[in-house]
């Protein structure tokens, strides 16, 4: 469901805006789990799942949209290598945080780390070179 919803959003809003919205939804949703009572959280969790699942699909699309065709194979290689590496390393690091400070602290750290991607995504909106059509 997340791939479908976020794919449709990316078509309508643009990839970078969708990434920003889904990352904000994911980060805020994770942080909300820490402070909102159980019943409202149970209503929130499907939306969190859609944002979390859809973000990755939208991120894959950024490579094709932001990288010139001659560099795409290298960009996808770098994207997948970093993604797999962080996916392998993160559970260990979060496990250490959880052992040290507990599950609530770990969820807070995860929520804030997700939010760090928002300013990084905003950087992708900036032109890489002067573009006379953009007024810069």
- Strand tally is 0
Task: Please state the structural category.
Answer: mainly alpha
**Gross morphology:** globular
Percentage of helical residues?
Answer: over 70%
Distance between the termini: 39 Å
Structural overview:
By secondary structure, the protein is mainly alpha-helical. The protein has one domain. It is built from 5 helices and no strands. α1 (2-13) packs across α3 (38-66), α2 packs antiparallel against α3 (38-66) and α4 (72-101) runs antiparallel to α5. The longest helix is centred in the middle third of the chain and has 30 residues, at 72-101. The chain is globular.
Question: What is the topological layout?
Answer:
Blueprint: H1 2-13, H2 15-35, H3 38-66, H4 72-101, H5 103-123
Helix pairs in contact: 1-2, 1-3, 2-3, 2-5, 4-5
Provide a short characterization of the protein structure.
With 136 residues, the chain is an all-alpha fold. The protein contains five helices and no strands.
Please give a handful of descriptors for the protein shown.
single chain, about 140 residues, 5 helices, mainly alpha, globular
